[in-house]
Amino acid sequence: MQPLLEIKDLSVEFALRAAKVRAVRNVSLTLNQGERLGLVGESGAGKSVLGFSIINLISKPGYISGGEVLFKGKDISKYTYEEMRHIRGNRISMIFQDPMMTLNPVLTVGQQMVETILAHRKVSVKEAEAIALDKLRKVYIPSPEKRLKQYPHEFSGGMRQRIVIAISLLTDPDLIIADEPTTALDVTIQAEIMSLLLELCERNNMGLLLITHDLAVVSEVTQRIAVLYAGRVVEIGSTEQIISNPQHPYTKGLINALPQSVHGDRLNQIRGMMPSLINMPRGCPFCPRCDYALERCKTEIPGLRQCESGTFIACFERDEPGKEAS
Questions:
Q1: Which of 124-138, 187-201, 312-326 has the lowest mean pLDDT?
Q2: Which residue pairs, CB below 8 angstroms and at least 24 apart, start in 239-246?
């Protein structure tokens, strides 16, 4: 079966005065129709840049320097601006971190939703309003007829995010890219929003690429997880395998850093910081922070390989005969 989305050896660079910075480095991922994939890692790992590059929204001086982004078998990374208009916001929708940055404060919710529909569908204004009402009902917005006439500032944070999700559903997309969709919300609302996204994906057989740093969130929603570090995929596998039995030292560090249930226990943390993209280590990018680093890690970059658990990891430490990562 042909994947819905296939990223092949994708690299993204930013041409700065000091140097060219590679924010995404030779990333390869696949996502099938109806599948939910989580993209996790610390801030600066390249998650959002990867998400933006899929729909070719990288702002200058950034650009895709290599690789392919295949959507339903076609390389959309080479599409012109006009060609991308038929894909972006239509077949692929994106949910951004801050709904107030997404919604226009001087237009009502109804005006924004109708405008979006008319940009992609040949329907009347009345038909567009009916579609908007239907989508608001599907994200459980109360009194949708009244809400269509209101402005974004009249909604709570959780309600605004529901409206952004409703807008992303207007054209019945095949894929939704959700970039930290619950960052600005409290824990209770976070759970509601993620439960809503899960329900909508299952009901409409939509693919979901969930970008987040929160492993607790991703473990509840996704079927597979890809772990990004310094622009590279360092581990990828099923959510259950990665959460219960992580193989890469970085993934272990992320999971160990989650708050423990035992009262009074100290929070674990990964020592050091992610390297600067301008001054990357010669070998494995995680080597300076890794407790299991080998001599070859200082000079060689490991490629992805499958380990016994079924996950794919980029780590030399797991290659050593008779040696298991603790």
A1: 312-326
A2: 239/38, 241/309, 241/310, 241/311, 242/311, 243/215, 243/219, 245/309
What one-letter code names the amino acid at 260? Q
* Residue 77: exposure state from Cβ atoms within 10 A (0-12, 13-18, ≥19): buried
3-state secondary structure at position 283: coil
Helix H segments across 37-149?
Answer: 47-54, 81-85, 99-102, 109-120, 125-138, 144-147
Tens digit of each residue's pLDDT (9 = 90 or more) over 45-60? 999 999 999 999 998 8
Decide: pTM greater than 0.85: yes
User: Taking 60 as the threshold, does the pLDDT of residue 215 lie above it?
Assistant: yes
Edge-first strand order for the sheet with 74-75 is 20-31, 5-15, 62-71, 74-75
Identify whether the C-beta of residue 119 lies closer than 8 Å to the C-beta of residue 173.
no
Question: What 3-state DSSP class applies to 210?
Answer: strand
H helix intervals, 139-246: 144-147, 157-168, 187-204, 215-221, 239-244
| 29-38, 196-205, 217-226, 260-269: segment of lowest average pLDDT | 260-269
Cα→Cα distances 43→213, 221, 275, Å: 7, 20, 12
pLDDT at 326: 28
pLDDT in tens, 221-235: 999 999 999 999 999
**pLDDT confidence tier of residue 97, bands split at 50, 70 and 90:** confident
3-state secondary structure of 236: strand
- Residue 187: exposure state from Cβ atoms within 10 A (0-12, 13-18, ≥19): exposed
Yes or no: say if 186 and 161 are a contact pair by the CB < 8 Å rule.
Answer: no
Strand-pairing partners, residue 11, are: 66
Nearest-angstrom CA–CA distance, 42 and 287: 16
Handedness of CA 87, 66, 38, 266 (dihedral sign): negative
